[in-house]
UniProtKB/TrEMBL annotation:
It comes from Pseudomonas abyssi. This is SatD family protein.
Length: 205
């Protein structure tokens, strides 16, 4: 047995948008962009639902946040693309895709009501460290605009200066700086770094 991380999610209001198929296509495109950044295997089902099995459990929270950032950034004008994600962390057999992490993630998503990002694990220590910070991070992400999500995504993936980001986006450095401030980029970055450390500690126990 090993510690595994599974993300189970679905698109928010997939039937309420103008073009449901475009929404689903953007999910597929997002997963393709995400794959080189946090390795995983995945399944899509019911059209608008997905499950990711991560190669590294420590990447779980970062992968979930990046997935949502990329989806929001792909939103068309006057609409919002986003996903609810349940992060399941626990034991799982190495030989097949079943075990504690899969059950926790799947059942966790079924039980989520207004939450858009939540952790499910039997590790009391990990819950103590991560449950509240994840709730805070979820609230920040829920308030991201398309521009803020796109700016944070590029900040997280390009590892470039704000000047370079501004040049890439064709905007002023001041505009990029303000977008990252509104996105609470420094806090999100610190949170993701710490979540990686905490999950690594659990996996090493």
């Amino acid at each position: 047995m090993t510690i595994a991380a599974v993300l189970t999610g679905d698109l928010i209001d997939s039937q309420g948008v103008e073009n449901t198929q475009d929404y689903i296509n953007q999910l597929r495109a997002t997963l393709s962009k995400l794959l080189p950044l946090c390795a995983f295997s995945h399944e899509l089902y019911r059209g608008d639902s997905f499950q990711l099995t991560l190669e590294s459990s420590a990447d779980a929270v970062r992968c979930a946040v990046m997935l949502r950032a990329a989806l929001i950034a792909a939103s068309p004008e006057h609409e919002r693309y986003d996903a609810r994600i349940a992060i399941g962390i626990g034991h799982a057999p190495e030989s097949n895709h079943y075990g504690e992490a899969f059950v926790l993630s799947g059942q966790g998503l079924d039980g989520m009501k207004k939450e858009t990002l939540a952790l499910f694990t039997h590790s009391a220590s990990l819950l103590d460290h991560l449950e509240l910070p994840i709730a805070f991070a979820a609230r920040i992400i829920e308030n991201w605009t398309r521009v803020e999500a796109e700016t944070w995504w590029l900040h997280a993936t390009m590892n470039a200066s704000q000047k370079a980001l501004a040049e890439h986006l064709g905007k002023s450095q001041v505009t990029v700086h303000k977008a990252l401030q509104r996105a609470e980029a420094p806090l999100i970055d610190r949170f993701l770094a710490r979540s990686h450390e905490w999950i690594t500690e659990l996996a090493g126990d």
